[in-house]
What does this fold into?
Amino acid sequence: MLAAGLKVAQPELVTDRRAKKGRVWELAAVLSLLTGGMMAGKKSLAEVESLSGELSQETRRRLGLKKGRVPDTTLRDLVVRLCPEEVGAMLRRVAQAAYRRKALESDFPFNVVAMDGKSTAIEELNAPWVQTHKKKAGLEAYGLVRTITCTLVTAFSRPLLEVVPMGNGGNEMGFFREAYAQLFEHHKAAFDVVTYDAGANCASNAQAVVESGKGYVFALKDENRFLMKKAMEVLGHKPPSTAVDSTEDVQCKRDNVRVFRYLHMAEVPTGYKAMKSVRTVLRVHTQKVDGQGKVLFEENHFYISSLLHGQLDAQQWLKLVRSHWGVEVTHNILDTSFQEDDRPFLTHSAQGMLVMLLLRRLAYNLLALWKGRTLKREDNRAAPWKTVFGWVERALEQATEACWANLRDRKACPAFA
It folds into this structure.
């Protein structure tokens, strides 16, 4: 997995922006080391430096590293100079290669990409890759590095197709079209439907998706907006007994607490006002019930879609709506297992932090594709991320020449639109 994945990412295509004088470590080797370090669960440049001193001789030769440790200062001075777009292209090449070898297949009628924003705090302000926010009270300000994540949620491995930096201005609704255009340009054949929360729900965004030949599912929010009012008027009053489909999940076996989700649907033949592409309105009514049948909690979520009512059955519609949370699962893995918010590697350089953020997602992609597609045993696929980190670390430290013997050489293919 390490030998094939790092080769497909093609780190040698990233432009080396360091001064030629004094270069000791090759750029591709250092990028492979950083990615491999993250895949081994390392949470800082100092930990990657320590790992570089423990690599086996064969691993070092394969990565193109010379003897000795790679200093953390060298790693930092490198990443703060790299172009984030070129580093993001490494992640894209891995996703494109996975599509070509049919590693992104699913059992759902459509390939669905869930898009969502993610922010990471930084100490730098007023920089090209950071948005400066001021608190309402006082003069205190803070910076955020913001990105749009595009996760193929219907694939078993839930890989990232694109991660698009938002730059130093704008919000998710205004940036959606740019992020979607990048997703469509590089992964046109890999998806059929895109989902987003209410943060990107507007007529121009919906039109951009439909004009590209794809479908959308957008969440509704804010009871004062026309579409939300209309959805509540059509579906808000319907009881659970009229639902077209429902699911039951056990949340707590000890207390017999269960979660019921009821799906209600309505057809919209001609759309609504500026949103002429809307064809289906959905409501998911969620109830949490204890062992005695008492309702502990309930809420409603409303959605609109350009897909026709009959393109999916009721069970598939409910799965489609719930699949959007796959991108949140990805963000949760990055926050908990990779500890992105607590251990971001760099906090004083927005460009350096963004490069490390993209390398972290590359590491996630390589591991996710390996777990979801290559591993055959179910217990291995379900292994905790901490366990997988340990496997990678041992492989880097113990691999010998015999480990690479007779491995199929996976050639890197040129990027394609």
Summary: Residues 350-374 form the longest helix (25 residues). Residues 2-84+349-404 form one domain. The chain is about 40% helix and 20% strand.
